[in-house]
Backbone:
């Protein structure tokens, strides 16, 4: 992700958005997109390292949590802020509430 962010930065985007909200089964099922909500330490490490690696503002898109029993957004939002992101977009649903 760090290398990808560095490559993207060469195109001079306004922001680099990390999408930890994609609910698509073949994405989330492999631990990417919303699947990162099942591995918060890795999600935070990726975010922190991308923020450190680029000068472009980094934003994050994510969900309320994986499912109704794991509503983690309040704590996660604070942790993402501590990583240095500039904005957070929150889908108002969990991964399990997504239309399949």
Residues:
């Amino acid at each position: 992700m760090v290398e990808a962010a560095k490559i993207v930065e060469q195109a001079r985007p306004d922001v680099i958005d990390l999408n930890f909200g994609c609910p698509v089964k073949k994405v989330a099922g492999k631990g990417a997109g919303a699947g990162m909500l099942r591995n918060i330490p890795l999600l935070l490490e990726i975010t922190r390292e991308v923020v450190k690696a680029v000068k472009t503002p980094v934003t994050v898109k994510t969900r309320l949590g994986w499912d109704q029993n794991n509503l983690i957004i309040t704590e996660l939002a604070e942790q993402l802020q501590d990583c240095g992101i500039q904005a957070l977009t929150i889908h108002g649903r969990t991964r399990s509430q997504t239309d399949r």
